[in-house]
Amino acid sequence: MSHSLIERIETIIVDLPTIRPHKLAMHTMQSQTLVIIRVRCADGIEGIGESTTIGGLAYGNESPESIKQNIDSHLAPLLIGQDAANINACMLRLDKAAKGNTFAKSGLESALLDAQGKRLGLPVSELLGGRVRDSLEVAWTLASGDTAKDIAEAEHMLEIRRHRIFKLKIGAGEVARDLRHVVAIKKALGDQASVRVDVNQAWEESVAIRACQVLGENGIDLIEQPISRINRAGQIRLNQRSPAPIMADESIESVEDAFSLAADGAASIFALKIAKNGGPRAVLRTAQIAEAAGIALYGGTMLEGSVGTLASAHAFVTLNRLTWGTELFGPLLLTEEIVTEAPVYRDFQLEVPRTPGIGLTLDEERLARFARK
């Protein structure tokens, strides 16, 4: 055991520019901030992970700064001297000592999996049970707010075979205008693309009842988190009457949340996010709950960079059914990379490496350049 003891854990906040502002109902991102985690072991192996959230504290209870501080001050000391090869024991140790902090824990678990994969010469997907596919279909978010521009962008993505699933972030503006915008895009793209919306909890239930009806009747395939995660009874009512399936996203902040939502019948689809469940192993427990309840799955994102995106992808390629694809497009939103070779997107898919670990190597020069001083 001594050869794989954890000797050091380092966290680095990295600020990266994006190709454009990314608008959510509660926040508009002008750049993206990652927390890169490096776990160094006594056998010389280093595992890398990523903890990334959206919009400071606008989205959830953790921010890049709190993630770094809590790992440095509380979580890392619990892991120093532990056996890195026993990922289960390491994560149970963290869960026993620290409540929540799923984003921080996800990055640590990803780094431990990366290290163990390198140690055994296996990709992370094989540590998680074995992949059943080598690539994942990836959605793209249309975010200009201009209907003609969004249609042109979608048509270009179809032409170059990069995306044929498109999601629109709505909810921040006037409802009737949002609906006209979405319906016009779906009408222009027709059957050659799937069009979906994400409301990020912005609507009241009284608004959502009518809006979901309009969206479903006009061919919108999926409606993500239309109302507050706190309004469980409203989520159940909407799921029962909406002609388009309702997907739970913000409602799932833990594996226990997934069980409760499934038991209540509050959603037809679950968005899987390693950050909100506490890591790749944890998100697969949520997937098992959904599968047992007959709930469809979608591979979600916190707009992670390449490290977090591929950590998610290694978990998602092990799933028997991923009916609604994924939205692992985070690296495509960034103008700069901190890894030596970026993830490969082609033919509407993200390819998942078969090399040991997550399959990425940090570019030390670029990492130093974009690390927050």
Question: What does this 3D model show about the protein?
Answer:
The chain has 373 residues and is of the alpha/beta class. It folds into two domains: 2-121 and 363-370, Enolase-like, N-terminal domain (Enolase-like, domain 1), CATH 3.30.390; 127-351, Enolase-like C-terminal domain (TIM Barrel), CATH 3.20.20. It is 40% helix and 20% strand. It is built from 14 helices and 13 strands. Strands 5-6-7-8-9-10-11 form a seven-stranded parallel beta sheet. Strands 1-2-3 form a three-stranded antiparallel beta sheet. Strands 4-13-12 form a three-stranded antiparallel beta sheet, with no helix packed on it. A hairpin with a 4-residue loop joins strand 2 (28-41) and strand 3. Helix 5 (147-159) runs parallel beside helix 6 (175-189) and helix 9 (255-264) packs parallel to helix 11.
β-sheet strand percentage: 15-25%
Overall number of strands: 13
Classified in CATH, the superfamily of the largest domain is: Enolase-like C-terminal domain
Describe the main β-sheet briefly: 7 strands, parallel
The oligomeric state is single chain
Q: Roughly how much helix do the residues carry, as a percent range?
A: 40-55%
Number of helices: 14
